[in-house]
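Raw record, unedited: ZZ-type domain-containing protein
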Amino acid sequence: MATKCTSCGEQITSLSIMYKCRQCVDHFVCQLCEEKEHNRAGQLFHTLDEMSVSAAKSMANSATASSKNCNDKQESNKCTSSNSSIFTSDEYLYSFLTYCKHCHRVFSIEKETGFECQECKAYNVCNQCFPLMKTLHSSGHTFKILSENLPALTLNGLYHFGVTCNGCSSECFTGKRYQCRECSPSYDLCEKCFDKKHTHHEFRYIQHFMLFAHNRQILAVRTMSLAAKNGDLDRRDSITGWTVSDAERIIPQVTGMLQSYKSEFQEEVSKLIRDLRGAQQELDPVEDLKRRHWWACW
Ligand SMILES: [Zn+2]
Ligand SMILES: [Zn+2]
Ligand SMILES: [Zn+2]
Ligand SMILES: [Zn+2]
Ligand SMILES: [Zn+2]
Ligand SMILES: [Zn+2]
């Protein structure tokens, strides 16, 4: 069977070079597409390895053996040159992630255009795979742009319940949260006050637990989906290092966190609405909260 490029959908007939994604079974990229900006930019979450078309064919025939060789080769070539891990990336720490159901690439909803099927549950695709959905996805289904849910899907849509900024005294602030490494009891700053107040001590960034839970859930579901696709349950995911059993442990844990935020949110809602009315916000507070909190409709 001829291999098609995931980016442009064209058959890869070139005699020489193609690229296979290390994370995805069915993600191949032709040489032209590999040279394009979007594939280079995506490499943090998506590793394309150069190979000849004939090697790709033999790899498909003996998947286990050649992927081992391939990994050994990459360990020496690429992994040493980049020490970035998804868990220390800005995308993971500061933005909501999702992954493409077609190519399994992980991306930030805020930073990249992605699409969501209106009919299927949680079927998202990346910008590069979206054109392929015309032929590959059920014809009656419609897609909408994921970032239409912004700002709900950003840090500005998340409240730090029970936390008060020690700089400006705002309660349940949104956005980034920083905590002093030295003071006890804890000394917290919102992102507006960070770097302006309490500068004699060092701070660390505290990722909102809702964002933490969401991103881990996405990565765990992706790990399981890839393992099922590859037919190898003991495989370690190359982005997270997780196996299927790691993912199975993580999913109930983060689902509990997501639920706890949801109930915390519901408890706080009436209080927040009162506060917002008091502050005479321009926006209708109820509409504003609905707009900012997509999970309120779960
Ligand atoms: Zn292509
Ligand atoms: Zn891929
Ligand atoms: Zn994709
Ligand atoms: Zn669909
Ligand atoms: Zn503040
Ligand atoms: Zn301090």
